[in-house]
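Our working data are protein records whose layout never changes between entries. Instead of coordinates, the fold is spelled out as a row of discrete tokens. Here is such a record, shown just as it appears in the course material:
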Amino acid sequence: MMLNNENAAPSNMAKATGGKKSKEKTIEETYTKKTQLEHILIRPDTYIGSIEKQTQQMWVYDAARYIFLTYSFYFPTSLLIYSLTYLVNKLCIKTLRTHLVCIKYTMKSL
């Protein structure tokens, strides 16, 4: 084996791999560091939103006094999107099963 020969390294590598070129991705190609925006652009259906809390005024019906009241709610938008996804999935099940009459969904604060 001659080290000064320019063709020595590739032929040795071909012998080490059995003469075949690897078609599999390397670890660096499979697992690459991506920014949050790149993750969203690659898989937009999996993005649920920010986890930062937001404040929003909402109207709530008080059944005991028969009036509407305004409350400030603090919630992350990701929780809201997750809840809506849950309800949509339940509605799809309800359309397939006609014996279901109603769906109740309650969120309680901790």
Q: What stands out?
A: The helical segments are 8-16, 27-30, 36-42, 77-96. Residues 1-15 have pLDDT under 50 and may be disordered. Strands lie at 53-62, 67-76.
